[in-house]
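Posted in: Structural Biology > Protein-Ligand Complexes

Title: Requesting predicted complex, zinc ion in pocket

I'd be grateful if someone could produce the 3D structure tokens for the following input. Sequence and ligand are given below.
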Amino acid sequence: MDFIPLWVLVFVVISAFSPSIVVSKDYSDLILGLAKQPETVDWIKELRRKIHGYPELAYEEFETSKLIRGELDRMGISYRYPLAGTGIRAWIGTGGPPFVALRADMDALPIQEGVEWEHKSKVPGKMHACGHDAHVAMLLGATKILKFRENYLKGTVVLIFQPAEEAGVGAKRMIKDGALENVEAIFAVHINPNLPTSVIGSRSGPLLAGSGFFKAVITGKGGSPENPHLSIDATLAASMAVISLQNIVSREADPLDSQVVSVASFNGGNNLDIIPESVVLGGTFRAFSNQTIYQIRRRIEEVIVEQTKVYRCSSTVDFFEREQPILPPTVNDERMYEHMRKVAVDLVGSENYKVVAPLMGAEDFSFYSEHVPAAFFFIGIRNETLGSIHSAHSPYFMIDEDALPIGSAIHATIAERYLNEHQ
Ligand SMILES: *[C@@H]1O[C@H](CO)[C@@H](O)[C@H](O)[C@H]1NC(C)=O
Ligand SMILES: *[C@@H]1O[C@H](CO)[C@@H](O)[C@H](O)[C@H]1NC(C)=O
Ligand SMILES: [Zn+2]
Ligand SMILES: [Zn+2]
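-- Reply #1 --
Done. Output follows.
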């Protein structure tokens, strides 16, 4: 208790008698005060470091999930487990409507950490290189604040800890297992190394691209290259297909509707004296509307099949839709975005809020945003002094942990204020 500054205690006492204090600047200061208590800050950072030290890949987040449940148990918070294998749905508040959800992802990446520091990954070849360790820590920080505010909550806050964002589309399985039951709005944050520490950024409408992958097998007839007329050249057919794929975006897309088709892999034959039987090529495609992403999918298939037919080859195109369905774009609902923006501006000031450009990266949070109004936002972790300047998925990725308590405060405030404003 001696860590709590006097003015925080004063606000706590005041708010106990007048819950209506909640829209004011004083309320924002109260929540920030709670998040910035040294013991809370240390606890949030320690959680993040523990998770960072033992990264687990998609659907293997057993220890991470156990750590989260341990903290929930200690705080006396009810939850349902498991959803989607290792996922958790916890809740705080009245247990009745309205229900608002906050989501964190738990999985790491198959990357060997290149940063030398005390809490470096202890698991060879695995690393939290996308900050999901920080997302879990921030959400647990918010949980602590919301638990403290439980008597004032005018509804229920649902806390979603999700597996397999990087691979395996955990969001989709979480929804199937009931993560969004009764939920009418959802919010999530992602750390961002392009924004300075604790700067918040987002935009209304499309924020992250929809994304899919394709792999095509082009089959001709193998043979000896000195007698080309006796073979059917899959290399030539595949090459023409690669060129034709370039025209989908350049000639068929609205130039104001950003899209990408990239061939990233092209393999066939390994002998300089044999025309190969087949060539395998593949890549990725991105777009900012659901309609466009499926339109591109259809055109990639048509272009490859028809173009290679011109050269007498046959082709099959696989979009991996069973293992890794096409991700819809992440589109921020205008009202949810505005709610999130107001909260962020109240907490960090308008000088620390940035409207960001859409990004070609993708997130499976988009599956939640297909079901309920949603807003996704970024919190900056860039600090030149610390060296937290590397992009996500880099082996040198690191974060400025000073952003964590701010992220917790914003989460908690988004949820509590949402409930107040949606009675
Ligand atoms: C996106 O398109 C797919 C395929 O047409 C459809 O199954 C899905 O429901 C659509 N999602 C939205 C949000 O429109
Ligand atoms: C960067 O980190 C250093 C060391 O923790 C800190 O003193 C400084 O205030 C940070 N800079 C920003 C912009 O947050
Ligand atoms: Zn990632
Ligand atoms: Zn991520």
